[in-house]
Specification:
mainly alpha; about 425 residues; about 80% helix; two-stranded antiparallel sheet; globular
């Protein structure tokens, strides 16, 4: 797990270095901010359409081999881009094609890497391993973003892509030496029977399983409303700081730094979770929403900074708990496809959330969007918890050959 964490730190740093430089490269080629957004959407779009197939592939193929091959392919794409940049042959068409190819490979690489990391620790430690992964991701993001400017300044744009290619090869070279923990990935989830022989491994079965699982549907609802009406702090807080609070770019930079620090602290706390649940995720999301409401009422930048840290911590812990539920609730043979379904749903939120939030800010302003969004999130989650608490067991009556079967016997028969 230590080797895997080190490899992921290197890979995340390289990925964020490339993403930062890619935005600069698109601006250099086109001079258009809209084109920059388009390049990001092109890379994310494959997840919307083929994540289900990527997840099914992860369930079918040997995990270590899948990760090693996908990382090598991502490295090849990065090296190809670096070569085109160095030769001066890169243009928007080539960049879009390479971004789309990266997005396609990532639909397999993402769930495969997540599940491989879980296999390296005992089942009881999976939530902690996910927390460590979130911490590594945050640290890699900070390092990659900082290194991007230095690399471009001294070595040029192509060097950042080459460095990312090396980071992918580093991960691929580490994978053969990883040893899964005894029994990891083999135990069925709680209340699940062992995997039957000849179990279906189809995309349809994965989607059907997700939709029949109330806790996964509830998790999707909580995460969805939180993603659309909250959490997009890079957008809402930027408008709040530079607008009503009369701050500048430097002030928003301070807010962003506090958000990053809060994310790291939240990942550390999230790694201490032992039995995360959808209820935990909901309560944390509601708490974050109420903090968002108070942040929308901030009279000054100083007050906002005091609120931003706990907002980021709560969000990070909630994300870690939700990821742990998502990756441990399904039985092992279904986890790749469940992550595939989640990838498609998450892409809808990431593509549709910012425009919807932008329209809300146009109508209600930055303060109104934060307050209204936070209240809607908290009310929705509170209503869901209330409905769940009031719901009780339903008495069943099933026809039997020799009479009627009722009560507890009916529940057993139904099961």
């Amino acid at each position: 797990m230590r080797w895997w964490s080190a490899a992921n730190f290197v890979s995340n740093a390289g990925t964020w270095m490339q993403l930062t430089v890619q935005n600069l490269l698109v601006l250099q080629i086109t001079g258009s901010a809209a084109a920059t957004g388009l390049s990001m959407s092109v890379q994310a779009a494959p997840a919307l359409f083929i994540s289900l197939f990527g997840g099914a592939a992860v369930d079918r193929w040997p995990r270590k081999l899948t990760v090693a091959v996908s990382q090598a392919l991502l490295g090849a794409v990065a090296f190809t881009t670096a070569l085109l940049v160095a030769l001066g042959r890169i243009d928007m068409t080539a960049l879009m094609v390479l971004a789309a190819v990266t997005g396609v490979i990532a639909t397999v690489d993402g769930p495969a890497c997540a599940l491989l990391g879980n296999d390296l620790v005992p089942v009881a430690d999976v939530p902690s391993a996910i927390g460590v992964g979130a911490l590594v991701h945050s640290a890699g993001r900070l390092a990659g973003t900082a290194l991007a400017g230095v690399t471009v300044g001294f070595l040029g744009t192509g060097a950042a892509y080459a460095a990312n290619g090396v980071s992918f090869l580093f991960v691929a070279s580490v994978v053969p030496f990883l040893r899964p923990a005894p029994g990891a990935g083999e135990q069925p989830a709680a209340s699940e029977r062992a995997v039957p022989a000849g179990a279906e491994m189809t995309v349809r079965e994965g989607l059907s399983f997700f939709m029949r699982r109330p806790r996964l549907v509830a998790l999707a609802g909580i995460t969805g409303i939180s993603s659309v009406l909250g959490r997009n702090y890079a957008l809402t807080l930027a408008v709040l700081v530079t607008g009503p609070l009369a701050g500048g770019a430097g002030a928003f930079g301070t807010v962003s730094t506090v958000l990053a620090v809060g994310g790291i602290l939240g990942a550390v706390l999230g790694a201490r979770l032992r039995k995360p649940s959808v209820r935990t995720v909901g309560l944390l999301a509601a708490a974050g929403a109420l903090l968002q409401v108070v942040a929308g009422l901030s009279p000054s930048l100083a007050v906002l900074l005091v609120l931003v840290l706990p907002m980021a911590i709560v969000e990070s812990v909630s994300d870690t708990a939700g990821t742990a539920v998502l990756q441990t609730d399904p039985p092992p043979h279904m986890r790749g496809r469940v992550l595939g379904v989640w990838g498609s749903i998450g892409t809808v939120w990431s593509l549709g959330g910012p425009p919807a939030l932008g329209l809300l800010m146009e109508w209600a302003g930055a303060r109104g969007a934060l307050i209204a969004g936070g209240l809607l999130i908290a009310a929705s989650i509170g209503g869901g918890l209330l409905v769940r608490r009031r719901g009780g067991p339903v008495s069943l009556t099933l026809a039997a050959k020799n009479g009627e079967v009722t009560g507890r016997e009916a529940l057993g028969t139904a099961a």
